[in-house]
Amino acid sequence: MKKAFTASVVALLLNSVFIFAQSKPEGSEKDFAAAFDASVRKTIETVHDIPGIAIVVIKGDKPIFLRAYGMADKEAGVKADVDTLFYIASSNKAFTALAAAMLDKERKILLADPVTKYTTGMQFKTPVPEKVTVRDLLTHTSGLRNEALIHRTAFSGQIDKAEIARVFADGTTFDEANFGEYQYTNLGYNIYGLLLEYHLKMYSSDERTV
Q1: What is the pTM of this model?
Q2: How far is residue 96 CA from its own chain's centroid?
Q3: Which residues are catalytic?
Q4: How far, CA to CA in Å, does 5 sit from each of 1, 47, 52, 72?
Q5: What does the DSSP 8-state code read for residue 114?
Q6: Which of 99, 154, 157, 178 is the most exposed place for a label (fewest CB within 10 A)?
């Protein structure tokens, strides 16, 4: 319930951005910042379940609004600022999917390619079929399972690269019955992040040898 409530508050604040952007097309950035700041403060005063929030609005290639509100730690009395780290949960899936679409367009990591094309040298205890594509990872239809990797990457704080690679290779299994069937999970996006890291590492190595 709280997740849905939080999502509604964020949607309300984001909707305010569009309202002000459309209602004040000729206004200055300063006018927008002042009006939007007032709207955010009114929302926070109305909805008491927001301990802290940071908002950035980008126009073109620069921020025109960047402010933080509330507390980063209520118990310790620490105010939130623009450098406060917020847990954004599955909001990062949208960022990852956008990056994946851009890399596909640039022909760097193709959505139609097998996952194994980007895991060269990795020895999986349970083979990952060639038919499992990068797109399958992002559409929750890969049929892959690895609860240990989900936990390590999202909840444990254990980010040792060698250990993550071991958990990826040793714990990934394939369920034929679920391949092609939608089953929401963090795993596909966890794996895509690893593919991206491996690809960038190989790309950097290739550049150094040129």
Answers
A1: 0.69
A2: 5
A3: 90
A4: 6, 10, 15, 19
A5: B
A6: 157
Alpha-carbon gap, residue 148 to 92, rounded angstroms: 20
CB 71 within 8 A of CB 53: no
Contact predicate 46/78, CB 8 Å: no
Closest-CA residue to 137 (of 179, 176, 95): 179
Q: What is the pLDDT of residues 89-107, one digit of tens each?
A: 888 899 999 999 999 999 9
Q: Round to whole Å and give the CA distance between 56 and 46.
A: 21
**Which residues lie below 8 Å from residue 12, measured CB to CB, with a gap of 6+?**
43
Contacts of 42 (CB under 8 A, 6+ apart): none
Amino acid at 122: M
Quick one: CA dihedral 35, 38, 39, 40, positive or negative? Answer: positive
Three-state DSSP state, 121 = coil
8 A C-beta contact, residue 80 and residue 70: yes
- DSSP secondary-structure letter at 26? T
pLDDT tens-digit readout, 52-99: 899 998 888 899 999 999 999 989 999 999 999 888 888 889 999 999
Tokens representing residue 28 in the block: 């200055």
